[in-house]
Amino acid sequence: MKSTILLAIEFAAVLGAQVPDFTPPTPLFGAVMHNNTTEAKRLLASGADPNEARLVGFPAVFFPVAFRNVEVFRAMVAKGADVQARDASGSTALMWAAFNEAGDPAMVEELLRLGLDPNARNQAGETALTWAARRGNTRVVAVLERAGASNPDGVRESAQRAITLLQKTSTQFVRVSGCVSCHNNFLPQMTIAAARVHGLEVDEKAARLTTEASLAAVKPLIEEAANSPDRVPDPSITVSYALLGFAANNYPADSYTEAMARLVAHWQMEDGGFRVFPMRPPIESSHFTATALSVRALQLYGKNPEEQVRRARAWLLRSTPETTEDRAMQVLGLAWANAEPAEIRERAKGLLAEQGPDGGWSQLPNLGTDAYATGQALVALQSGANLPASDPAIKRGIAFLLRTQFADGSWLVRTRSFPFQPYKESGFPYGKDQWISAAGTSWAAMALSLSLPPQKEEPRVLSSVRASGE
Description:
By secondary structure, the chain is mostly helical. The protein contains 21 helices and two strands.
């Protein structure tokens, strides 16, 4: 056996190799490391070379950047410091300037004036905006965006991770539950439709299998509903979402979709709205959701829905929303029902007013911001109110989603529904919060996809151009 002393020596050698050596290689390094302004300026005035040597991969000029010491930084630049230098990871001084917890833009502005590229990337593909956004919607983010910083690849990668997870767990949900759902199947199908249009990768086999499984689960229920309209709970939402899911995968109209559309049509009230049992917030709780989805379902698969759409549009125009779900679905419903653009913009103002300081939306005024409300609001504003991805509110919302997403592609959303349905494990993370988290992840990924440049025509499930030709 090795002696205790020998083991200790070997351990110390390994530890020494892992701990970086911060011994300053030059006196100037020692001064900037300790943020000693007087000594650093004295050494520079005496002829110290600001570009001499490196410390654990960092050039000396990075230290005043990290300390936000503009005085020393300017003194080094005056003596020829290479502001375009990068560290061992390929990160620029601008990235390190963006990496400050206070959100102080002074050093960022200084570096931008010196010509640093706001969209430069390190070896991990990160930009200064990536680093700044991890600290929230700060003044640094605003300065970088004004300088032209953007992160389309980050948006694309974020949406792609979410879509991959959704497709994997969507098919798993069908297997373990023997059923289909709005949260794990129909909303993901709508998300996949947006992904296709905006150039993201989609597992078409999985999409087709989900549609086939959905049809197999829905057909016997629809046949029973022909004799008992109450057989299917909340058809204005559940059946409407199913039809939107089918349309997302371009499923052609047939006798079953016609029967489903008739069931939805049956639930329109005398005042023009469609009602729902408000028992499962947020997905099944809003009359605005029921009305908007029903309008779209009837347009996609109903026969001669013009009069029902007209009455629903009037209800959406005169009704007052209370929640973010209400406001988002009011905007989407009016767009689908071909309301006047000015009418849609007016309702969109109410949705925009609910955006939080962090760029996100909350489901209710006293709740925190989350991916469900934020994604849904962004989809409504982009698809319904036609706000471009360059709009400041959209950019802030997208930034919120990017910094709150988990590495596996998901977003966590807390459930607030009474758990009367048997819980089934789909493989989506977060245990008993997974159903609403899957829905939130769908809305978030849909919003991210819509912010990317389209490569095809918008999916008909989201387009405001009606299939009925009204």
